Structures are given as C-alpha cells and as structure tokens.
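For the sake of clarity, the format in which proteins appear in this thesis is described at this point. Each number in the token line that follows is a code from a learned vocabulary of backbone shapes. One such record is shown here in full, so that the layout can be seen directly:
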Amino acid sequence: MSLIEVQNLTKVFPLGESIFGGSAEGEVRAVDDVSLNIESGETLGLVGESGSGKSTLGRLVLRLMEPTSGSIRFDGRDLLSASRREMRQRRRDMQIIFQDPFGSLDPRMRVEHIIAEPLIIHEHALMVSPSAKPAKGTASTARRKRVAELLRAVGLDESALQRYPHEFSGGQRQRIGIARALALRPKFIVADEPVSALDVSVGAQIVNLLAQLQREFGLTYLFISHSMPVVRYLATRIAVMYRGKLVEVGPTEQITTQPTHAYTRSLLQATPEIELTA
C-alpha cells in the first residue's frame, strides 16, 4: 500500500534580480513534473548530484515548501487541500532528519528540551490520555520518560539530558536529531543527506542505526543522498534525479547493476565503494 503518492509535482523558482540590476528573465524548474509512490515500510533512496532538486522534492513532500503544481497524498489524504489545523495533525506522522548535525540543533537548548519540544507542541504524543487532566508534574514526568526512551533507542544514555549540543561529536548530534524526529512516533521520515557531513565510519554507524530503527518502529523513509553505496545498502528502491526530473526508478538491485539511463551509470562510476555492514 502506498503511504506517499506524488503526481506531476513541480516547483518553479523565478530567477529574480540580475546581478547587473533589474530583473533576470526566466525561471528555474527545481522539481519538474515528478511522479512517484513510496510504499508503507519501504525505503526509497533518492539520489542525484547537488542541485538536482532532490532536497527540494523532500521538502515539498512534507509540505515544508508549497509546490507550483501537482498533487501529494499521504496515507490516502490530499495534503495540498489540507487546512493549517489538518496539516498540524499530519505533521505528527511526517518528520525530517536534516543534513547538518551542527546547524540543526539549537545551541542554547539542552538535549532534553531539544527532543521534548515536539512533545510539548503535540501533547497527544505523551503517554497520558489527552482527555484526562493529569496531576501537576505528570506531563513533564511523562515527557522526561519519553525523552530517555528515545535517547536509549538512538544509542545514547540519560547523562546526555542536561548537556548542550556543542558538548557532542557530529555523530552524537545526528543521533540527537534522529531522536527528535522519532519523538511523535511518525510513520514517515525524510532523511535529507543525514550522513554527508560525517566521516565514513561514523556515517556507517548512523546508516545502520536508521536501518535498525526502521525494523523496530516500522518506519517508511525517503532517504536522500548523493552516495550510491549508502543508498544501495539501505534502500528498497532507488529513484534517480537529474536537473529536476526523475530519470529512473526501480528496485535497488536493478538500478545498481543494470541502469538504463546514462546519468545513473555516471553516478555509479563516480562514487567510490564504502564498507557498510549490518
């Protein structure tokens, strides 16, 4: 069953002002008539070089950006016709893991508050009945318990709760970002180049963690990367994006051993192999 259904999705950016003054003519079609489905429980790897439009597509699917045209359905519901209130409810099920583990965490907040922030915004995600009026301190106790569970799930312990982001390594920060994305028990996560800012060994640990969490929580991923070896390891299917268009989509084995598009072949030839073990 398709969790995500995208049809003819397009995002056009006007070029804006010219460096010589006045307005530059034309437009950039960052995402150009893209259609794809993501099945519940699968990982769709979205690959392409920088500027191919893959990150824009990921943000469009989450409706963090508004498309110029096209349609997006999540779990059978039309996202583009959803009201602000409906979208707030939908965002419980749709989260993002960002590329930069250094810039995506507020340096002024302790880890406990970083991970708990989505829980505070969406109190229904707590282990307390939303119809009940909990005794004083019950909600904060439930939040702290949930945050501790999330830290353990991503391989960190409770000693991290009162520390700040700058006290952690890049890989540990990305684990904190993953814990935050899991806080509301989402069905779907866009992982936007989550290991590109990390060294190879740490990146491999994060990829293995994502695979483990998918099995544990039944997650569906759109995994965005420029690295074919990483996508090959994690993805069920691969979609190749070039200049805003999807040029090839298929099972991982087919795309990585028998690609039909010249651009896919060039990506495979250009990317060095890396060791990723289960």
